Amino acid sequence: MYLVIVGGGKVGAPLASSLINEGHEVFVLDNNPDTVAHLQRELGMIATIGDATSVRALEHAGAARAGAIIATTNSDEDNLAACQLAKSNFDVPRTIAVAHSPENAELFDLTGVDLVVSATDLVLSNLATALPAHPLIRLMPIADRTQELVAIKLPAAGTAVGHTISGLRLPYGTKIVLIITADGHSKTPDADALIEAEDEIIALSPTNSTTELWELLTELR
User: Fold this and answer.
1) N or C: which terminus of the chain carries fewer CB neighbours within 10 A?
2) How are strands ordered across the β-sheet holding 175-180?
3) How distant is the alpha carbon of residue 195 from its chain centre?
């Protein structure tokens, strides 16, 4: 597919490289001569200097035969304008735009951009992926800091769920001191206590074994 990318910066350049590697024919339009020169050195003559809010520049980039236009500049206004011009003047079948401001994402939808990529949503999504769903909470160091009191919430699909405490291979020196159930009740952590989904385990752990304990209790099936 022939694709026109508007903006060859931090988003547009790696996107162009990836799409070329996937076998697409790509052309990049950018108004910065240094950016265009860099793209030409790295990827070949697939970029030109031009303002994507100009019909003539889009025409020169081959918008008339493009299967899609992807607007990735740092300006929401330019991204929106490029998509609207591509639709109205060249009948590009699919328009995709990055919206840096959350307020503008809805506007892009209302004005007919086919796919709106919210920069804010991307950041939040990456953060959610990077941060553990069941974090380790260090409550208190004990004595000379060789031990610590920690809280770990078990995932519903954890391998520890369904086992008794005696059935867990806890790191040496670890002692479970309290179990708090998903509905907020506490239960005595005796040897026969059953571990259930979404239980929160309060444990006294040797500091050098805490990570091992977290991995054991949050491992998924």
Assistant:
1) C
2) 136-142, 147-153, 200-206, 175-180, 186-187
3) 32
Amino acid identity for residue 61 in this structure? A
The count of residues in the chain is 221
Structure tokens at 44: 């070949």
**Over the stretch 107-162, which tens digit does the pLDDT of each residue have?**
898 889 998 888 776 666 555 455 566 678 888 887 677 898 999 999 888 899 99
Sheet holding 68-71, edge to edge: 47-49, 25-30, 2-6, 68-71, 95-99, 115-118
Single-letter amino acid, residue 174:
T
Q: Kindly list the structural domains of the chain, giving each domain's residue range(s) and its CATH number in brackets, ordered by start.
A: 2-128 (3.40.50.720), 136-218 (3.30.70.1450)
- pTM value? 0.58
For 164-188, the pLDDT digits (tens) are 999 999 999 999 999 999 888 888 8
